[in-house]
Amino acid sequence: MLMLCLDICLANGAEIYAPSTFVVNVTGSIIGLTWFPTRFLANFRRLRRARRFSEFVSVYVNHHYQALHIASDGGRICGPMSIVKNEKSRVTSDHVIMLKTGEYVFDDFLSMGLVEYLDANEENDALMALYESNIVPGTTHLEIEIEPLTILGVVAGLIPYPHHNQSPRNTYQCAMHIWVNRQLGLSHITSSIPMVKTETIELIGWDKFPAGQNATVAASLDRAYGRCQVLRKFSTIIRKYPNGTFDRLADALVDEHGNAEGLAGLVEQVYPGDIYINKQTPKNAADNSLTGQGAAPYKTTHLTYKFPIPGYIDKMMITGAWDALLIKALIRRTYTGRRVFAVSLSTKKTYPSTIGELLQLNTWFDSACTVLILWPDTIMNPHGFPSRMMVRKMIEFLAGKAGVLSGKLQYGTAFAGSKVEDMSRILIIIENDFSYSGKPGKDMLANGLTGEPLEA
């Protein structure tokens, strides 16, 4: 090691700024120079595996800044990796058996050079494989994951199929899991084993905590909110003009539909062409001559509802000073399109997810149900899937429903778990008796109030 590193105090300017020089840093302090970073790394890791210094000391190269960093400070998260030799993992099945029988402990694997700890920086600088079958012949793989699910932490490991999720969604769900940890025993009094669990859930015994319940979810455009609801703001000013004239709000009128026009009231429904602010402006508002002074006839400058879908007055605000009034209207437009349902059973809900509408007991029979008499607990807006890229949730729904109908718990472990093809095959076989239009696997839903079939 000393032969590959020159003391920084003994180096001159030409050596320090040479194009092939790499600066050696130990916990942020420059100690020397090296011209052989690859050999330095190989010898350093060889000594670490021989336990010549702590297994938690990491080393990595930053080629952009031509620096070699050795980190020994505390607070770094280090994970164990299996060492690769001759394109094979050094940890064999015999070692695992001896570990289970108690002949070996994990520290023995470290002293035998079978596994080593890497921090986040060294992982970025190492060539790793998820499985031994992923090792490409001729490449210089250094490590292999002991188990791919250990890439994630304990909290992230609770999420089914996290590798099919947009990364910020996993971050949000981790925050929700942490919130639930603080509320255990307070917000939930019953416990459900999740229909779609992960190996992490079993390892930490999370399925034995009262942390949530399974829920039947229907993806529907008929009763959901969220993307189906659009809020639009409109405003106008009632002002006084230099010639002494001023705008005014006309008296309320009644149109042919019997709806009151003028300054619409809260929660009032407006249709296309309805007037919700009946404003009038004097015709000589822009006339500042002597002949333009005084009162004049008014013309209508009202605000009308111009959208094809009916809306509701959500808010109406009036504010301003002595010479002008500002009127703002907030109109809510709700899309009520064709009913499209997709009923699935989701896993344990350990966080307050964004759902459309929570159905109470007295409204269950007004919602859709399957021929198996499954009423949805929640109705979710299907627009939430593409906008948030939640493929994970769709796979979880599929696995949950297959698990319910087959009577088996399914797994959504990261980088593994139950496959979509297998879950689809289960649904096609089990639901074949309930299919319609000659399409196996299609669920048959019925309106709980009228009994009419619904497209699903």
Automatic annotation (TrEMBL):
Cleavable signal peptide: none
Domain RNA polymerase Rpb2: 24-85, 106-135
EC category: transferase
SUPFAM superfamilies: beta and beta-prime subunits of DNA dependent RNA-polymerase (SSF64484)
InterPro entries: DNA-dir_RNA_pol_su2, DNA-dir_RNAP_su2_dom, DNA-dir_RNAP_su2_hyb_sf, RNA_pol_Rpb2_4, RNA_pol_Rpb2_5, RNA_pol_RPB2_OB-fold
GO MF annotation list: DNA binding; DNA-directed RNA polymerase activity; ribonucleoside binding
Domain of life: Eukaryota
One GO term of the biological process aspect: DNA-templated transcription
Keyword tags: DNA-directed RNA polymerase, Nucleotidyltransferase, Transcription, Transferase
GO cellular component: DNA-directed RNA polymerase complex
E.C. code: 2.7.7.6
Domain DNA-directed RNA polymerase subunit 2 hybrid-binding: 155-319, 375-455
Record family assignment: Belongs to the RNA polymerase beta chain family.
Protein name (record): DNA-directed RNA polymerase
Organism of derivation: Sistotremastrum niveocremeum HHB9708
